[in-house]
């Protein structure tokens, strides 16, 4: 039973289907993040997951339950689940002679979670046919409860937690120091705007960790991957923030040209926050239910060829993830014009963007164990 009595969180689905602007065909930056995390997940399972602790040796059937939170529409979620299953299966086979009898079967159940507006039809129509697990969809916000108590053994979430459950109200209050006039994000805004984002993210993370602490069995693992910014590094070196800044300036141009209103631009803010490792440590310690087994900052974009980090690629990537929220606020008729303008700006700034994407694309990799 879901006991979350708060208002339903905002929903920011990626572009569904498998068309030109779909997330399915424009999520290779996220795929790079998944690939970078592969060996780290292998090591975490090998070193930190104790199957003997999780399962009774008297049971003949052993069901290992995994949830992918914020799975979107694929294909990256399938790669991540395959990776986790392979290493857990390998560890189980290694431990059979020591702790498990040969009659015990290890079965897998994978729960694919995302907002109710996610394109689950595309997700499930593209499920691998030879998958070694039972699949289920779990619609709903991960900012609240999704599963029964102590029902999961492994939780995975990649590039989803940066989305806020809602925008801070003060961003739209013209009397507030955090009114974000003429900007779409906090990247190039007064500190009060960034603080409003940070406060909302802290509230969201408190709910997220509290819910996961109830759902994960003692000894279970949780792997979180998200965009991050190291302490002391300016936002101008974080690719996401730079792209959002360019998108905001493109909207201002459209307002100046009369295609959208100034009020529409002033009331539009992208609900994405890049957390620092220090902040995450504070949230996790405040929750008290998890032990940090591993925490690393990585640069996944450095594994992508230079010719893939083009203005066109960046435009398609951003459109796949932002078109729905933009259409909801401004109407779908502005989308083509907006991203044409965005593309031209990224081309003009390509010499500036290349080193930022290669050097400043930082992701946080976290392995947490339920105490």
UniProtKB/TrEMBL annotation:
Official protein name in the record: SAM dependent carboxyl methyltransferase
Keywords: Magnesium, Metal-binding, Methyltransferase, Transferase
GO MF assignments: metal ion binding; methyltransferase activity
Organism, scientific name: Trema orientale
Highest taxon of the lineage: Eukaryota
One GO-annotated biological process of the protein: methylation
Pfam families for this protein: Methyltransf_7 (PF03492)
């Amino acid at each position: 039973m879901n006991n979350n009595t708060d208002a339903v969180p905002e929903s920011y689905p990626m572009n569904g289907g498998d068309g030109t602007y779909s997330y399915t065909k424009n999520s290779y930056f996220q795929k790079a993040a998944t690939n970078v995390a592969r060996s780290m997940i292998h090591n975490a399972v090998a070193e930190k997951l104790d199957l003997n602790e999780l399962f009774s040796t008297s049971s003949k059937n052993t069901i290992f339950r995994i949830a992918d939170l914020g799975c979107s529409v694929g294909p990256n979620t399938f790669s991540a689940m395959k990776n986790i299953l392979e290493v857990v299966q390998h560890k189980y086979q290694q431990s059979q002679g020591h702790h498990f009898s040969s009659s015990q079967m290890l079965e897998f159940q994978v729960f694919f979670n995302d907002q109710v507006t996610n394109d689950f039809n595309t997700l499930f129509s593209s499920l691998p046919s030879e998958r070694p697990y039972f699949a289920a969809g779990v619609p709903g916000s991960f900012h609240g409860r999704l599963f029964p108590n102590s029902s999961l053994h492994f939780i995975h979430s990649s590039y989803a937690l940066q989305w806020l459950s809602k925008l801070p109200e003060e961003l739209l209050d013209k009397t507030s120091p955090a009114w974000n006039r003429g900007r779409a994000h906090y990247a190039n805004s007064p500190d009060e705007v960034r603080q409003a984002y940070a406060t909302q993210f802290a509230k969201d993370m408190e709910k997220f960790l509290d819910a996961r602490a109830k759902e994960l069995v003692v000894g279970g693992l949780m792997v979180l991957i998200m965009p991050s910014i190291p302490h002391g590094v300016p936002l101008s070196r974080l690719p996401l923030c730079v792209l959002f800044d360019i998108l905001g300036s493109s909207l201002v141009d459209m307002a100046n040209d009369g295609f959208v209103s100034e009020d529409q631009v002033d009331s539009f803010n992208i609900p994405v926050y890049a957390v620092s490792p220090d902040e995450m440590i504070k949230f996790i310690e405040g929750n008290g239910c998890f032990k940090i087994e591993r925490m690393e900052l990585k640069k996944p974009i450095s594994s992508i060829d230079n010719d893939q980090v083009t203005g066109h690629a960046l435009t398609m990537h951003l459109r796949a993830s932002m078109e729905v929220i933009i259409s909801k606020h401004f109407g779908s008729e502005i989308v083509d014009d907006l991203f044409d303008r965005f593309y031209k700006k990224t081309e003009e700034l390509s010499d500036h963007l290349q080193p930022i994407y290669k050097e400043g694309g930082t992701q946080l990799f976290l392995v947490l164990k339920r105490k």
